[in-house]
Amino acid sequence: MRNMKESPHPCQMGESFARKNRNQISPITDFEIENGVFKKYLGDSETVAIPDDITSIGDNAFWNCSSLISIDIPDSVISIGDSAFEWCKSLQSIHIPDSVTSIGNDAFGWCEALTAIEIPNHVTSIGENAFACCHSLKSIHIPDGVTSIGDCAFMFCDSLESIHIPESVTSIGIHTFLGCEALTSIHIPDGITSIGDMMFCRCRSLTSIHIPDSVTAIGDKAFFGCYALSSIEIPASVEEIGEYAFPSNTAIRNNSSVTIPPISDFDIAHGTLKRYLGKSNSPIIPDSITRIGDYAFEDCLALTAIKIPDSVTSIGNYAFCSCTALTSIKIPNSITSIKKSTFFECSALTSIEIPNDVTSIGPMAFSNCHKLISIKIPDRVTSIGADAFEYCKSLPAIKIPDRVTSIGYGAFDGCCSLTSIRIPEGITRIDMSTFFGCKALTSIEIPDSVTIIEERAFTLCESLKSIHIPDSVTSIGDEAFFGCASLKSIKIPKSVTHIGRNAFPVDAKIIRV
After folding, report:
1. Alpha-carbon distance 506 to 19, whole Å?
2. Gap between the Cα atoms of 148 and 165, Å rounded
3. Among candidates 468, 466, 473, which has minimal Cα distance to 487?
4. What pTM was computed for the model?
5. Three-state SS string across 176-221, please?
6. What are the Cα distances from residue 315, in Å, to 90, 362, 387?
7. Which of 86, 124, 308, 493 satisfies CB 3.0 to 4.6 Å to 109 for a cystine?
């Protein structure tokens, strides 16, 4: 799920570009510093040493520095700003000095290579999304001084096996440990009064948990998808329990006065299937259903096939998200749009037929459908959302209809089997990371309607041997064709007035025409 912030890297104009060895330690000329605040990193080195007189690392200071592997923060630093190291995908190690007292929102979000981190003793709060999607992070120790942990702080840290939460913590946000699939146990401090919405949702390895007597509220889906949790005891202090708080297979010892309704296979209200709670691998949806709600079948791991009746006119966001065993599904002709993340991470789905009346495909609609090899986009579709087919690794070809006028950022990011694609005439912008990592892509036709090629649009398209940039193009973004190793020469028309940093492969011949 990609951040839409603008790249912090400066842009350069001209026909040639100076590049230095990324293995070198970055020189001080790569730093933008103001009044002791490290505002922006302008280089691309793998190792960075921050000067000793810095007191604060500013917001977005190293945002999306993809080459950064390690960094040394001096003892003079007392705060790390929002998104300071967000999207530093190569960052493996970092030392945070004891002088640091706060870690901002999104500070280390999406640092996918980070395996461990030690939080200093003087830190009192951990911001929202601070370590979200750090997929390699296995363990973390939270010091005794911390009093609050923000929303989504460790969301989707799916390698996280253990975490220590001290008794000093009195507030933990919603979605904090959502999708921490390797987490087997966790201690909730006695000062916690609320277990927020989806706090432990999809912690599939969680086998036991103790809810302290201080807790008065348990939020929606707090433990939903924790299928290894065989039993749980609810203390008498609990006054409120949200929808789908526990998995259907968990034995609940309820000491509170709150009534937990019996769980049936379908939760239906006013013609909307709100949630499927059964365990069948091929449930039959009643004909009375007119709408499948948001998240209705999310994380139904046993689901292999499903037929949606013709009465259904709408399928909600995330409706079949993470149905990892789903191999086939029939969508009725009554459907006119595929919404956000509807089939996200349906990793066993090999083919799907989209009805002819569909006009839009939403963001992340088929993202991470790794085995998808065949899909036909209907002629009436006019827009393809951001990350719509991201990481559809087996998809060899796809035809984009002529009516499509909008393709969102990252739409085909990581489609490493895609060999060729035609962009329709209505497209005016090739957005950020649209074809990032399409390693098998050998050719692509950019129409005359395109005026902007955004940053990383074709990065790491290693098989791309030639490309024609039309006279309509005026701007080529940072790293637009970087890592296209087979691209030996590029003709750039005079219409191009802006060329971003590292826009082309290092050894490519740039020809102005």
Report:
1. 8
2. 10
3. 466
4. 0.68
5. CCCCCCCCCEEECCCCCCEECCCCCCCCCCCCEEECCCCCCEECCC
6. 37, 12, 19
7. 86
